[in-house]
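Cast an eye over this sequence plus tokens and explain the fold to me:
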Amino acid sequence: SGGNTTLVVTGPLESLTITPATATRKVGEPQGYTVIGHYVGGATKNLTQVVEYTSSNPEVAQAPNVDGNRGQILAIGVGTATISARDAATGITTTSSADAIVTVTP
């Protein structure tokens, strides 16, 4: 009995988007991010647990990239940081579309 198999072929990764675009947290609070990969041909895929996150200001927000919870950023100091995500396989980052901004308050 032959079952049918569907093979979905997506084009190469074209861009990444990170949400939320802006967030405000108090010192000590986490902020979760979601990253969606956009592929040639229009397909999308949630890449939140695949990409690597970085913070422009590690004294304000840290990106520990913990497996299983990679999108969680930790607010550790007062100020503003830019959060970006990068797909290691392609080198594509959220910077080309728009990085996220987190503001940390006391």
